[in-house]
Amino acid sequence: MQPLSAQALAQYRAAAPMDPVNVMEYQMVAKEKLPKMVYDYYASGADDQWTLQEARSAFERITFRPRVLVDVSVQDMSTTILGQKVAFPICVAPTAMQCMATGQGEKATSRAVASMNTLMTLSSWSTTPLEEVAKAAPHGARWFQLYVYKDRACTERLVRRAQAAGYKALCLTVDTPRLGRRENDVKNRFHLPDGLTMGNFLDLVQAEMPTDQKDSGLAAYVASLIDPTLNWKDVEWLKTITNLPIVVKGVLTAEDALMAVKHGCAGIVVSNHGARQLDYSPATIDVLEEVVNAVRGYPIEVYLDGGVRRGTDALKALALGARAVFVGRPVVWGLAAGGEEGVRKVLTMLRDEFKLGLALLGCQSLKDINRSMVVTPADRAKTAVRARL
Ligand SMILES: Cc1cc2nc3c(=O)[nH]c(=O)nc-3n(C[C@H](O)[C@H](O)[C@H](O)COP(=O)(O)O)c2cc1C
Ligand SMILES: CC(C)CC(=O)C(=O)O
């Protein structure tokens, strides 16, 4: 989502709802509450932020073909994600440094997500140690997002800790050999606010983010720690140090999807990192089908993240073959606006919108959602060509 313009914010203030009724309004409340450096970090995309805009535009270009006169008085939104049951197919993507949004940070998210019976992915760059996040909601479904560090011993210890703490999969982020250039972070000289630390590294590597940079402190921090040599062989290495399933996050092409299959990954997140890495990458919803078609018949699940702000966005992704979607910023907006309760409200909104859309589409359960229920720009182009022949 685009950063809000001064004009949009002024318009919102004029009609400020006491209680936000959608995710976009939660973003506006969060913007009012957060310090500028923090809001900008959460909201921004890379460079021109073209991909950031495109994430929403691409969803807007897809329309539905709803079916009618179907009994939808009883609905079931549940599914499984790598065998773990979730109440609805909207899960939580990893977002770093959540204690900047609210004091309880990742612990609040953990409790809210568990109470909604869905799945949370914890960023390895959390401001709370992974064990404390697990303890905050012991029965919640949880994955651990991994960046591979130059210090492989540190990486290995982190993986073992995640496994010991009950995280059920490693979500390996593969689109960040270097941090994308977020110009607001450069201007703001982004750094971790005083009193916060990267909770998982306290005993491992340099826990403090530099504050004296003439650039984004985060970009320098990432450059000093994350291993840019990461490649498919390292997936094999990871498999020698853990038996947790590996989900690769950041795949955008059929070629890489097939590499994930070849290297024994259990899942793929079709993701462009919330438009924060390579600008002019496509919107994820536009490449989802390419990935789904490439791996059809293989034992691998495909998920999508990026720009999901409405229950109907999730329906579109499922119709195009995703097993579930993940949301990043909406959770942070909920946290900033209302802590644990704010996250619960955001997830409840998305769940309820999804349920309503499911009924209006004529579906009783996720099994009823199918490809014929959406029309994409590619479908329209094909129809136009056929009409001309
Ligand atoms: C503030 C912020 C921090 C993020 N931190 C991480 C991270 O630590 N690890 C990671 O793999 N992805 C990270 N991401 C990317 C998200 O996991 C996800 O791909 C993206 O936010 C999805 O798009 P959405 O925000 O439009 O829902 C971050 C995204 C944001 C906005
Ligand atoms: C600590 C960062 C690498 C987190 C991240 O992935 C992001 O800001 O997009």
TrEMBL record:
Domain FMN hydroxy acid dehydrogenase residue range list: 15-379
Cofactor: FMN
EC number: 1.1.3.15
Tree of life domain: Eukaryota
Binding site for FMN: 94-96, 123, 145, 173, 249, 271, 305-309, 328-329
Active-site residues (renumbered): H273
CDD domains: alpha_hydroxyacid_oxid_FMN
Gene Ontology MF term list: (S)-2-hydroxy-acid oxidase activity; FMN binding
Binding site for glyoxylate: Y41, Y147, R182, H273, R276
Recorded GO CC terms: cytoplasm
InterPro entries recorded: Aldolase_TIM (IPR013785), Alpha-hydoxy_acid_DH_FMN (IPR012133), FMN-dep_DH (IPR000262), FMN_HAD (IPR037396), FMN_hydac_DH_AS (IPR008259)
Keywords: Flavoprotein, FMN, Oxidoreductase
Family stated for the protein in its record: Belongs to the FMN-dependent alpha-hydroxy acid dehydrogenase family.
Protein name per UniProt: Peroxisomal glycolate oxidase
